[in-house]
Amino acid sequence: MTGKPVLHYFNGRGRMESIRWLLAAAGVEFEEELFETREEFEKLIQGGALMYEQVPMVEIDGMNLVQTRAILRYIAAKYDLYGQNLEEQAWIDMYVEGLRDLSDMIMYFPLSLPEEKEMNLEYILHRATTRFFPVYEKALRDHQQDFLVGSRLSWADVQLLEVILLVEECKPSVLSDFPLLQDFKVRISQIPTINRFLQPGSKRKPRSAAVGAQGCRLASSPMDLVGFGYAALVTIGSILGYKRRGGVPSLIAGLSVGLLAGYGAYRVSIDKRDVKVSLFTAFFLATVMGVRFKRSKKIMPAGLVAGLSFMMILRLILRLL
Q1: pTM score of the predicted model
Q2: Contacts of 296 (CB under 8 A, 6+ apart)
Q3: Shared domain check, 173 and 91
Q4: Is 275 in contact with 264 (CB distance < 8 Å)?
Q5: Whose CB has fewer CB within 10 Å in the chain, the N or C terminal residue?
Q6: Distance between CA atoms of residues 59 and 64, nearest Å
Q7: What is the pLDDT of residues 83-130, one digit of tens each?
Q8: Which of 189, 216, 243 is the C-terminal boundary of a domain?
Q9: Do 240 and 201 have their domain in common?
C-alpha cells in the first residue's frame, strides 16, 4: 500500500466520479483499480472486501468504504470540506442531496427508450432550470459569499460545479439565465486543485468513457440544414451584391448578418428550441428587406430575401409550439 486512497470501480464516471471530484478538490492524490471485465469485478467480490457486493469502494485509512454517500461524507469530513458546525453540515447535506437528484436523472438518461429520449432530455433541462438551479442562484444571492455555505470551499460547492458541467454537456447555454451561477462556475473552476482536475490528462473521466450511462448528448436534435442554407444564401447574396454594385459597408453588413444567421443555425442544431439568435436575424432581415422591396418593387434580391425571412420566422415560431 502507498498510503494513497485506492478507488475500485469500472473504467468510467458513474457514481465514482463525484468521489474523484471531492478528492481532487481536497488536493488528495489517489490511485485507481479499474475493472475492464466482469471477471475482475467478480474477483473483488469473492475476496470479501465488498460489504454489499457492489461498487464504488474506496480503500482509505485501513478501511474498505462502500456506499457513495458514506464515502463522500467521510472524505468531506476528513479533509475539512464539511462545514464548521452542525448547521453548516445540514445546509451542505441539503444542497448535495438536491444535486444528487439532478445528477441521477442525467446518469440514467442514456437508458431511455429511443422514442423517449427527446422528451426525457427536455424534462431534465426543464427541471434543472426551474427547480434546481434557481435554488442555488438564490442561495448565492442570499448568502453573499463566494461559496454556498460558510466562507470557504465545501463539498456542496464541489458537487454543484460537477453537476453544472454535467448539465452543460446536455445544453451548453443552460446557465444563460443564472448570472451568479455563471460567476460561481468560473470562480470555483479557478481554485488550483480543481483547475488541475479539469485539465486534460487528469483522472477526471471523459463523457465518452462513461460506464453506467453517465452524461447526455443532444443527438436527437438534427443539424439545422435549413438555417445553415439561409445563412449561406445571405452571405452569398452579399458577395454578389458587392461584385455588382461595390460598397464595402454593405458587404460588411451582409457578411455580419450571414455570420449571425449561421451562428443561430448552430444554436438551433444544439437545442431545437434555442431560436433567439435565428429569430432575431430573420426578423431583422425581413424588416430591412421588406422596406426595401416596398420601395423598389424588385423581387431580386429584396423581395426574395424578405419572403424567405418571413418563412424562417414562421418556421422558428412553430418550433416553439
Answers
A1: 0.66
A2: 302
A3: yes
A4: yes
A5: C
A6: 5
A7: 999 999 999 999 999 999 888 888 878 777 777 778 888 888 999 999
A8: 216
A9: no
